[in-house]
Design brief:
heterotetramer; A alpha+beta (about 400); B alpha/beta (about 650); C alpha/beta (about 280); D alpha/beta (about 575); A: alpha+beta; 2 domains; 14 strands; D: alpha/beta; 4-stranded parallel beta sheet; 12 strands
Chain lengths: ~400, ~650, ~280, ~575
């Protein structure tokens, strides 16, 4: 585990950035999004939700696949270079990390998507414990514990200290590398490194026992410091307090009964969809801010002499999403609206061991122009179910 | 996939002299879609066209690009060639590498590079061309001539001779125009009235010709073959059907203070008047501004004296709408306003006059009854000075940049006539250059100098100073002898520049015909289509297009008439297929396009639209291709891109932009 | 499988022959630039063809896998890309990626069975691959009946191959029909669904059905009437596909992805799917 | 001037005058630089702003458009429309910080070969003096730098990055102090206003509640009497702040009807769909929504006869993101109470109280007026909501008895002018600053199209960006330039039609001030072509589809910015 005082976060970030690209929440005119750590940026690790999820670190909104000459007599295809160097994504919350797991099942299943895989392999995910969950959060409903976000390492801010613990070998190697930088540059008199036996278990039950007290603690003058055993307790207490808050939040208790693999057959044909979709504008906001939406389009960009083929996010909400030269299987917005929620709550779980393609991040609640969202859909069917009984 | 052929013309050395045509052809071969490219000496020649036709057939070309002169020059030539080869004529694009490249650039490399880019843009465009078929429209077998001067009269007579109906609209109460104001004509010294009047009579009596005098064109709509023209027949206050032309009303009219337009304001006329004795129609009009009856309500003398009961004070302007197949503009000219030429004392002295005023003075029907006399004191002038190029060939903004063309000759004529009739009168002409190209013109001028002893001084007059004695001191320079010349003259005649009629711009705008800075109407091609306006169905006759003398005007009138006859003898006209069309799948019927359409070609209908299997009733725009002239205003007004223009589609222009910026 | 470095990266292919089948259908033969086939496939599988800058779309591979020299695609002109493809000439290159999707179970469920192929118009394209595969492995299969119909005589795809090769094969019957009478046509006239009913086909056979949706609907109804089992009727579906690998999110019908789980489906499977295609 | 710089210049010339003028320049051998490439169009009115932006996108350093002199158009009026279009477009390009002078309009007749040549010489000289179009080409070259971390797979630079982590301001924000807050209960709640605020009757809040009741009763009547087949209003959501637009078909459904301070959505656009339904639709429209309805009527998208409009009073609408921006989170169910000038919020992190104005939608602070421009009946009262710049206080009287009329009077001398204050502020910046401002704002755009899809003026069946004519993708940020193009063109397409309803800015998930583009056009139109307010009355003619002979020339943009 690495501990660093919050007023030295700058140094920590510099240390990471000296080794690899660092992607973390940055603010631009009041809006916080994941962005690259470079001079002049305004880092906002305190922000709970970024506008977009961090998925575009692994599945960019636009990504070149290959370029191709336009000369049909002598056509050649030059594939785009795959990501080949490590980068770190710092501060992903539990819901976003779950989102990655959802994407993994799509892109890493056969046939594997090479572009995604390369980014995934090179990317180090440092999760972060949520400090102030919002009332629009409902990750708990999908089994995400926001105090145990997962990732290769987990960061948590308690009081004036930032703790980072590794969750796997990748994370461990990362932390070691970073500590080395911090130590070698003698920047971190408050930086403590220690080993843990257990990484956080995925289901977020008990966790983090110390193997021994063989902590490395380095200060400016090189003297070793004894590990602060209180820190661990503080951390535990902190997480507990967050968990208590989540229990108070109204949407966390959302029930998913009747969805996923247990969805009734007639749900597709339910007349309720006709009511629910009405205000939908067919914009792509929900899709683009969603951590799990993975639909994409493949398009050409004419560079004059060659054609650059790229893929870009697409939205199943768009009217031309399934449009073909000779027809469209989803002609109405109702069908498209239904597709989005059926996919997240029924089709995906059916194909993926019951795992939902929603992580309860609540971004659609926050951002839908007309206040539609997945919770309303789930609750509407719940209500209907009750009435029918 | 398109199969494009590129043909690069050398145009002798016009293009090849500056552009490496072989390289352009070579670069073309590398362009996507191009399967054939070749350069040749003269693409527009028979051999060149055969080369194109053979290539289209041999290589199964789906489109061709000709890199040559301006499309305004030979687009039609190459389109026809394509058609002969079985290719739709609209699958042809021209890359203008002569007017817009080789002729303006000197650096060979630079020009070649530009030519390649222009070629690429044309290739990119032609790849997106679609075969177009021209629509057809009928032809109204009636022509309109605007202006009833010699140009208009002759045009109308020639059109009528071919058996077509033709109307003349003349603003003033009589036809005749400027020529009727002239005394004699050069170089034959014919009496102007003697040769014009029969023509006027002929026009008036011609069954095919309808005269609308004292009338003006108010509005023009439609297009070639199908114009609709609103004509305002101004109230004459005299009923033409009753008037016998006896002239008593004019004699008895108590108001005789209105300056006579016909006599250039040198004398006055009555309020009820015909401009001149031989006026056609010989029906007077009441000038209501100067009429006592109209101004005060009292008088009514003319009505009392008219035995035919032709006076009608209640008459109102009448609007008529007539359909025409062709329109000829023959609006003629005027002399410029001389207010800005203070140095010649035109406004200060009555004895400084314009040549046109001199014509009236010399004319037996003029203000002096044909006696040459000073308007100030009625004395016969003994020393007359003519000043040439007043406002013509002028470098500054006071005058016109062009040569008025007729002044040298009429001045020679007037000088000669004066010397002939009043041998004791000295005549001096200050000139910059004497321009006498034309049959018997130079001989005529030399007669003036040699036989009639007119003094020609090459030089300019700096000032004309009126003296209290009545003398006009002309201060000039003789640049041949390099000396100042001072002449105490009795009369000074200014050869004022001519300019198009004041209404020319208004008329041109109504007709959507182009006009130049000097308000001369622009011809479709300076050399090859001198009597046609760029707007189809609009023709030009006379000085409205540029300065010319009477025989030239008459020739032009005949030429314009021939063009009109050619047009009217067709039963159907091919219309421009480059028209707008609306994609009903995208159109939302918002009516924005309709508002900007100058031809009223867009309407809306509610219909069932099948969008990929979804049927919905919607309001959508429909373009009437016969009315659409293809300006494209609607295509930009349309936000969704539903409205597009064949031949200049969004995708085509974007492709050109991309190619140019590549 | 595919020699592509990534599933989304295509290979360049050369058009080595073009056959004009009907006024709006052409068959393209495609080879690797260095010669030979771009990849191996199974009957019923598809591949993405692309003209750079114009578009990319999924097409059935019409040649049989038993053909070792090249792949063929029969393509009907219906949109921007197909228009462009129709304008190409021999020697032009396109990009190809694939093969994608499942295939007809020629090595399992179809083996030893009597087979009935029913196709309409361009619907013959995916079936031709199987028909020729079966012909090349004739011993493995029972009787073969081919029912093929089109709007007119001129719209019959692979007419020459059908009459000169297929009709002459052992244990093979070919039934052709056109929608409306036409000069020079001596064969059957009428729509495929009604023709199928007239033919007295073996209801125990396995049916491979492909054609326009309306034809499929009526043929299916007819077959069920005749006692055929939905379990033994196969068809191929077509939806908008971009990626070809079940990831871009377009081609799903319920939880099935046409490009990954299909395009070949049994009607019993189709009945399970929501009605959205 | 850059040495050896050869600019790329695109010239659009109308076939009848300027192209012929160029030919004449050629046949007169009047030279001009080879950098100029002419594209022939039938008329200057054929030149779509998208062509010009496309040229810039593809690397043009300058674009010039030539047409017949105004009044001499071969098609009689084409160049008048072109003149207005280009004036507005150039003004917008100037606004976003493209150097003015990069685009120009010149009228050249067929007889003016010399003028053509001279114009081109001048223009090339001007472009050379401006140099390469660095701002726009940087956008192109650096590609998607804003999202570089996602796209750039090139080797990164090895130098050490020094980032500025904002520690004090952000880190010690509410984020890390959760436990403290928990312990200290209400300590975090900010009470800054009048301590006696609570004694006010919560006028607006209660009034809105009263309005909601009246609406429910009236709407039920309409449904029951058969006067309306359905009602379009808002339905209560999961929280106080997420009411959704909804159709109600019977009295029971009306139980969920809501009208509160978060009913910001403009329902007019849904009336397009309602126009295709049988029977009359009763719709609840706020004053500003009625402008949109009028505009849609003008464009034949809605059917008046099938609409029953209930004009509802409006006291200014709130935005949840405005509340969030002040660090309020964890809001409890039914935890928001809105009073006259404050918002009291119960959250799991303690109670908070904020100024009402601070969470109001931007558009309400610069409200056009509380007068319904079209209605069948009115329910509920309105209150002036304009906010004076500087003081941040409401302009209208906050007295409980304030009525529409005196509120409007207050607006006359204050609020109305505020509408363009931000546009004016930006106009005063240098071109470079403007460019940076907009590049930064638009860099956040995720191309979700929410702005477009919510916009009542963007009612096209199929957006031009969804079509393939212009080869510009609506949904992909393949190039940052396209973002600019998208927003400029979108604003251009709604220019003269936009009622300034502000929905675009309300719905933008990245909070991009998109209304600024629309307001800039409105401001220009007002200044150049006379005051015009789209939707003020149905059937009015957009300034872009009319003209006067004396309209300003596009060069007015350059002249104006010189004055600054």
């Amino acid at each position: 585990m690495l501990k660093i005082s919050t007023d030295r976060i700058n140094e920590l970030m510099d240390a990471i950035a000296s080794k690899m690209d660092l992607i973390l929440p940055v603010e631009n005119n009041g809006q916080v999004n994941f962005g690259i750590y470079e001079s002049g940026v305004r880092v906002r690790l305190d922000a709970l939700k970024t506008v977009k999820s961090a998925k575009d670190a692994f599945f960019p909104q636009s990504e070149t696949l290959y370029s191709c000459s336009k000369d049909l007599k002598n056509l050649s295809v030059t594939p785009a270079k795959l990501m080949d160097r490590p980068f770190a994504v710092f501060g992903m919350k539990g819901c976003d990390i779950r989102g990655l797991e959802v994407l993994d099942r799509v892109f890493l299943s056969d046939p594997v998507d090479g572009f995604y895989k390369a980014r995934r392999e090179n990317g180090i995910v440092i999760g972060m414990v949520c400090n102030t969950p919002w009332e629009s959060c409902f990750c708990k409903a999908f089994g995400v514990d926001c105090t145990e976000p997962g990732g290769d390492a987990t960061a948590c801010v308690v009081g004036d200290g930032l703790f980072i613990e590794a969750n796997n070998e990748k994370g461990k190697a990362f932390l070691e590398m970073i500590s080395e930088v911090l130590i070698s540059e003698t920047l971190a008199d408050n930086c403590i490194m220690r080993d843990t036996v257990e990484t956080v278990s995925k289901d977020g039950t008990e966790k983090t026992a110390l193997e021994d007290d063989k902590e490395q603690s380095v200060s400016k003058d090189g003297t070793e410091k004894t590990a602060d055993a209180d820190d661990m307790e503080k951390l535990r207490a902190h997480k507990e307090s967050i968990r208590r808050i989540t229990e108070k939040l109204p949407l966390m208790s959302l029930s998913l009964k009747g969805w996923g693999t247990e969805t009734p057959k007639d749900r597709f044909d339910s007349p309720l969809w006709e009511k629910l979709y009405k205000p939908c504008l067919a914009c792509g906001t929900c899709t683009f801010v969603c951590p799990t939406c993975q639909c994409y389009d493949i398009k050409d960009h004419d560079d004059g002499d060659s054609v650059r083929r790229y893929r870009c996010w697409d939205s199943c909400m768009y009217s031309d999403f399934t449009l073909m030269a000779h027809g469209n299987p989803r002609t109405s917005q109702m069908q498209r609206f239904r597709q989005r929620f059926m996919h997240k709550l029924v089709y995906y779980p059916q194909n993926n061991d019951g795992i939902f393609s929603c992580t309860g991040c609540g971004r659609c609640i926050d951002k839908c122009p007309q206040s539609l969202n997945i919770v309303k859909v789930i609750k509407a069917f719940e209500k209907e179910g009750k009435e029918n009984v | 996939m398109p199969r494009i052929g590129v043909f690069v013309c050398h145009c002798g050395t016009n293009i090849a002299g500056t552009i490496d045509v072989a390289k352009v052809a070579e670069m073309a071969a590398a362009e996507q879609g191009v399967v054939f490219s070749k350069d040749y000496q003269y693409m527009c020649s028979q051999t060149g066209q055969t080369l194109i036709i053979d290539a289209i057939k041999e290589y199964k070309l789906t489109g061709i690009v000709v890199c040559s002169c301006s499309p305004r020059m030979h687009e039609t030539t190459f389109r026809n060639a394509a058609q002969r080869a079985g290719l739709n004529p609209y699958m042809v694009e021209i890359a203008n590498i002569r007017e817009q490249c080789s002729w303006i650039h000197k650096d060979r490399e630079e020009a070649t590079e530009k030519a390649v880019i222009l070629m690429r843009a044309a290739v990119a465009k032609v790849c997106l061309n679609t075969p177009l078929t021209a629509g057809e429209s009928g032809v109204t077998k009636r022509a309109l001539v605007i202006g009833g001067g010699i140009a208009g009269i002759q045009t109308a007579l020639d059109i009528s001779a071919a058996g077509f109906k033709v109307d003349i609209v003349e603003k003033t109460p009589s036809i005749g125009g400027r020529m009727s104001q002239l005394d004699k004509t050069f170089p034959t010294l014919d009496c102007s009235a003697c040769i014009l009047t029969p023509k006027m009579v002929e026009a008036a009596s011609d069954e095919n010709i309808t005269l609308y005098t004292y009338s003006e064109v108010e509005k023009v709509s439609g297009f070639v073959g199908n114009f609709k023209v609103d004509i305002r027949k101004k109230a004459r206050s005299v009923r033409a059907d009753k008037c016998t032309g006896c002239g008593v009303c004019q004699e008895k009219c108590p108001s005789k203070k209105a300056p006579s337009e016909f006599n250039r304001g040198l004398n006055n006329r009555s309020a009820i008047y015909t401009p001149f004795a031989q006026a056609i129609p010989n029906v007077p009009v009441i000038d209501r501004e100067n009429c006592i009856k109209f101004q005060t309500g009292k008088c009514g003398v003319c009505s009392k004296v008219c035995q035919a009961n032709a006076i009608d004070y209640e008459q109102e302007d009448e609007m008529i709408t007539v359909e025409y197949g062709a329109i000829v503009v023959a609006t003629g000219f005027d002399v410029i306003n001389l207010d800005k030429y203070d140095e010649y004392a035109y406004s200060k002295s009555k004895d400084v006059i314009t040549s046109l005023e001199l014509e009236r003075i010399m004319n037996a029907a003029g203000p002096t009854g044909g006696h040459l006399e000073r308007l100030s004191d009625g004395k016969a002038p003994k020393e007359i000075v003519f000043i040439q190029c007043v406002g013509s060939r002028c470098a500054d903004e006071r005058g016109k940049s062009y040569c008025s063309k007729i002044c040298c000759m009429y001045t020679a004529k007037q000088a000669m006539l004066i010397r002939d009739k009043y041998p004791d009168t000295n005549v001096t002409v200050f000139y910059i250059d004497i321009r006498t190209p034309g049959k018997n013109f130079d001989e005529f001028y030399r007669r003036a100098v040699e036989d009639y002893n007119v003094h020609y001084i090459k030089g300019q007059v700096g000032k004309v100073l009126p003296e209290s004695s009545g003398k006009l001191i002309v201060v000039g320079s003789d640049i041949i002898d390099a000396r100042h010349v001072i002449i105490p003259a009795d009369m000074v005649v200014l050869a004022a520049a001519i300019e198009p009629n004041k209404d020319a711009r208004k008329i041109a705008t109504m007709l959507t015909a182009s006009i130049d800075n000097n308000n001369f109407l622009t011809e479709a091609h300076a050399k090859l289509r001198p009597v046609e306006s760029p707007t189809a169905g609009i023709f030009l006759s006379g000085v409205c297009q540029g300065p010319r003398d009477i025989p030239e005007t008459v020739a032009m009138a005949g030429s314009a008439a021939a063009k009109v006859i050619g047009l009217l003898s067709k039963d159907r006209l091919k219309s421009n297929p480059c028209t707008a069309h609306s994609d009903e799948l995208m159109c939302n019927g918002c009516s924005t396009c309709e508002k900007v359409c100058p031809y009223g070609a867009i309407s809306y209908e509610t219909k069932i639209v099948n969008d990929h299997g979804v049927k919905k009733e919607r309001r959508v725009a429909v373009v009437n291709a016969a009315l659409c002239q293809g300006c494209g205003a609607c295509t930009v007004a349309c936000p969704s891109g539903a409205m597009d223009l064949s031949g200049f589609s969004n995708r085509q222009i974007i492709a050109e932009v991309d190619a140019v910026c590549r | 499988m595919c020699k592509c470095s990534d599933t989304l990266i295509p290979l360049p292919g050369v058009i080595t022959a073009i056959t004009e089948e009907t006024p709006d259908v052409k068959t393209f033969r495609i080879n690797a630039p260095e010669g030979g086939k771009l990849f191996e496939h199974m009957p019923g599988q598809c591949a993405m063809l692309c003209v750079p800058g114009v578009g990319e779309a999924m097409f059935s591979i019409t040649s049989s896998p038993t053909n070792k020299e090249y792949q063929e695609f029969s393509i009907k002109r219906c949109g921007e890309l197909t228009n462009c493809l129709h304008g190409l000439s021999v020697g032009d290159m396109v990009t190809v990626r694939g093969p994608y999707g499942n295939h007809f179970p020629v090595e399992s469920e179809l083996k030893g069975k009597d087979l009935i192929f029913i196709a309409g118009g361009i619907g013959l394209a995916p079936l031709r691959s199987v028909i020729n595969y079966v012909a090349d492995n004739r011993a493995d299969y029972g009787n073969v009946d081919i029912v093929y119909g089109s709007r007119s005589m001129d719209d019959l795809v692979r007419y020459q191959e059908i009459t000169e090769e297929w009709a002459k094969r052992e244990r093979t019957n070919v039934y052709l029909t056109i929608d409306r009478p036409q000069d020079g046509w001596n064969g059957h006239v009428g729509f495929v669904p009604s023709y199928v009913k007239e033919l007295n086909l073996n209801a125990a056979a396995t049916v491979l059905l492909c054609g326009p949706p309306i034809m499929i609907k009526f043929v299916l109804a007819g077959l069920l009437e005749l006692g055929f089992s939905k379990e033994r009727i196969y068809t191929t579906l077509e939806l908008r596909m971009k990626c070809g690998v079940g990831k871009c999110g377009r081609c799903n019908i319920g939880s099935k992805y046409v490009c990954k789980d299909g395009p070949v489906f049994k009607f019993t499977q189709i009945d399970e799917l929501p009605d959205e295609f | 001037m850059q040495i050896g710089f050869r600019p790329k210049i695109v010239a659009f010339c109308c076939n009848w005058c300027s192209y012929a003028g160029a030919d004449l320049a050629g046949s007169s051998r009047l030279s001009y630089p080879a950098d100029v490439k002419i594209i022939r169009v039938p008329c200057s009115c054929r030149v779509n702003p998208m062509f010009i932006l496309r040229a810039f996108e593809k690397g043009a350093d300058g674009v010039i458009m030539c047409g017949c002199h105004p009044g001499d158009c071969h098609y009689s009026t084409g160049n008048f429309y072109a003149r207005r279009r280009m004036t507005l477009l150039f003004s917008m390009l100037d606004f976003i910080g493209v150097e003015n002078g990069r685009c120009r309009v010149e009228w050249v007749s067929a007889a003016e070969g010399a003028k053509f040549s001279q114009t081109m010489n001048e223009f090339v000289e001007k472009i050379c003096s401006l140099g390469e179009n660095v701002r726009l080409s940087n956008l192109r070259k650096t590609g998607s730098q804003q999202t570089a971390f996602t796209i750039n797979t090139e080797k990164r630079e090895t130098h050490r990055l020094v980032g500025a982590v904002v520690t004090d301001a952000s880190w010690t924000g509410e984020g890390s102090k959760v436990s403290e807050k928990e312990e200290n209960g209400n300590q975090m709640s900010v009470v800054t206003g009048d301590p006696e605020a609570g004694q006010y009757e919560p006028e607006c809040g209660s009034q809105t509640a009263k309005t909601e009741e009246s609406l429910k009763i009236r709407l039920a009547q309409l449904l029951e009497s058969g006067k309306a087949a359905r009602v379009l209003g808002w339905k209560k959501g999961e929280t106080d702040y997420d009411p959704e637009p909804a159709f109600f078909e019977n009295k029971d459904e009306l139980g969920a009807f809501v009208y509160n301070d978060f009913c910001g959505a403009n329902l007019s656009k849904y009336m397009i769909e309602a126009a295709g339904l049988d029977g009359v639709t009763a719709v609840v429209l706020k004053p500003c929504d009625t402008y949109s309805f009028n505009q849609l009527m003008t464009e034949h998208r809605v059917v008046r006869e099938k609409t029953y409009i209930i004009g509802v009073g409006c006291c200014g609408k709130l935005s949840i993101s405005g509340i969030r921006a002040q660090g309020v989170t964890g809001i409890e169910e039914n935890g928001i109470e809105v009073t006259d000038d404050r918002i009291k919020i119960k959250t799991v992190y303690g109670d908070r109280e904020i100024e009402r104005n601070s969470a109001m939608l931007e558009r309400c602070g610069v409200c056009k007026g509380k007068e319904h421009r079209i209605f069948d009946e009115l329910i509920g009262e309105s209150r002036d909501t304009t906010i004076c710049a500087g003081t941040g206080k409401a302009c209208g009287s906050a007295a409980p008895d304030s009525t529409v009329s005196n509120a409007a009077a207050g607006r006359e001398n204050s609020g109305k002018d505020q509408r363009f204050a931000e546009v004016e502020r930006i106009e005063k910046l240098s071109a470079k600053e403007r460019f940076e401002y907009f590049s930064n704002e638009l860099s956040r755009c995720i191309r979700c199209n929410a702005c477009r899809n919510v916009c009542p003026a963007c009612s096209c069946i199929k957006c031009v960006f969804d079509g393939n004519q212009f080869d510009e993708a609506a949904k992909a940020n393949s190039e940052p330039f396209e973002e600019k193009m998208f927003h400029i063109i979108r604003a251009f397409h709604v220019a003269g039609r936009c009622t300034d309803c502000g929905e675009c800015s309300r719905v933008c998930p990245q909070n991009i001030p998109l209304h600024l583009f629309n307001r800039k056009f409105i401001k220009d139109i007002n200044e150049l072509y006379g005051e015009y307010c789209a939707g003020y009355e149905a059937g009015s003619v957009s300034p872009l589809t009319r003209f006067t002979m004396q309209d300003a020339e596009p060069s007015v943009v350059t002249e104006r910015s010189k004055g600054c």
